[in-house]
Amino acid sequence: MNADKEVNTVDDALNGASDIIAEAISDEADYRIRIREMTVKKGLVLSTAKVPETESVYEMYYEFSEGVSKIAGHRILALNRGESEKILTVKIEAPQEDIIRYLEKQVITNNNLNTTPFLQTAIADSYQRLIAPAIEREIRSGLTETAEDGAIRVFGKNLEQLLMQPPIVDQVVLGWDPAFRTGCKISVVDPTGKVLDTTVIYPTAPQNKIEESKAVLKKLIDKYNVTLISLGNGTASRESEMVIVDLLKEIKRPVQYVIVNEAGASVYSASKLATEEFPNFDVGQRSAVSMARRLQDPLAELVKIDPKSIGVGQYQHDMNQKKLSEALSGVVEDCVNKVGVDLNTASASLLEYISGISKTVAKNIVAYREENGRFASRSQLLKVAKLGPKAYEQCAGFTRIINGENPLDTTAVHPESYEAAKKLLAKLGYEPQDITTGSLKGISKKLPTMQNLPMNLASGKSPCRIL
């Protein structure tokens, strides 16, 4: 009995010593750094199907293997999603033999027949039980973060390209949201985006009321002088396009049509923002209005939609939502800073991004525009409720008025610098009207250096950097 107890005590002591050595090896920072480097350089990302017979979109990853250092970001995001949906099993296969040899070389300094086997066992236990799982978590976390950052950059770039599409100004647009059973929703908006009329037509299956629909469209085109039709690219778009083509052949008025991407339109139509904007419209009518407005001014309309619903990125729901939202908000702000905002088409959602304009003031600007018609000058902003002189000073330079009273209202020149800008133009042989006629081409070659400018031009905000 005593002998057995003595043996158990020795085994316990050895196991305890082995655990202490294993933890000491695991806690060595230099070892971990080197092991991580070896795993990244020679390791593999492996994935297998939990149930190989199951059909899914992840079938290409049922027997997948790729180097940790080479795997693309979109594959990492796909593997993560497949794993979270419990379809895939994902792990990292490290070069275990190389790692064990490295650790033995570092830990076993003297070859001893009694201690070497014991240390080898402790080293293997340390790596497999403590180091390997931690290193795998670190590497997968790093791969995921890098993949997300790359996806967010692509998302932001695509969003910028979409938002920066040139607006189509001074057009009365007929927005067409195509559908089959429920009919095609039609909305007519004026050049400022104000809704003039809405209706529903049934030119597609199963009703196929083509001639009746054409008659309705002809009346709307004649009544409101429609010059452009904006057709969504969703369900029944091709059938609707055929009707439009035939219609345009039958009318004398010059009307064109454009097919627009309606991604996110249904999300916007059912949103709280759309309900507040069009409380008396149903979801289909709001979608038709969005079709028209996103052609008139993409930046003003698309900013109302959650960027994740616009369809310009991948795996957006799997990313860090706070980081994604901040990045996309930055993209919108950059777009606003680059091009400014057209006061006569900008939505309240877009106006909120301008310095000095709050949500309340943004809504008041839109309300003022709807009540009084288009803005003719920037100074009219001072008539908007709750927009005082200080707020005007902050926001004026970011607003634009196309075909307004003052050509300088189309530029980034702040109203307080108008007189200086006019003097500079006159000195160079131009007039403000030349800004809108395209006659300023080559003006940069005529601009004097800052040293040669008069004091009243060289000080403060010099318009020569803007015109």
Please tell me about this protein's structure.
By secondary structure, this protein is of the alpha/beta class. It has 19 helices and 10 strands. The strands form 3 sheets. A 5-stranded mixed beta sheet has the order 6-5-4-7-8, with helices on both faces. A 3-stranded antiparallel beta sheet has the order 2-1-3. Strand 5 (184-189) and strand 6 form a beta hairpin. The longest helix is centred in the first third of the chain and has 48 residues, at 116-163. 33% of the residues are buried. The model is unreliable at 1-7 and 453-467 (pLDDT under 50).
Class by helix and strand content? alpha/beta
* Strand line-up of the largest beta sheet: 6-5-4-7-8
Shape annotation: elongated
Oligomer: single chain
Helix-strand sequence: HHEEHEHHEEEHEHEHHHHHEHHHEHHHH
**For the report, how would you describe the main beta sheet?**
5 strands, mixed
Strand content: 5-15%
Contiguous low-pLDDT stretches (5 residues minimum) are 1-7, 453-467
Would you tell me the overall average pLDDT? 89
Tell me how many strands there are. Answer: 10
Précis, in short:
With 467 residues, the protein is α/β, with parallel strands linked by helices. 51% of the residues lie in helices and 10% in strands.
Please describe the topology of this protein.
Layout: H1 2-26, H2 29-42, E1 44-49, E2 63-67, H3 73-84, E3 88-93, H4 96-107, H5 116-163, E4 173-177, E5 184-189, E6 195-201, H6 210-224, E7 228-232, H7 237-250, E8 256-260, H8 265-269, H9 272-277, H10 283-296, H11 298-302, H12 321-339, E9 341-342, H13 348-351, H14 359-372, H15 389-395, E10 399-400, H16 418-427, H17 434-437, H18 443-446, H19 455-458
Parallel strand pairs: 4-7, 7-8, 9-10
Antiparallel strand pairs: 1-2, 1-3, 4-5, 5-6
Helix pairs in contact: 1-5, 3-5, 4-5, 5-12
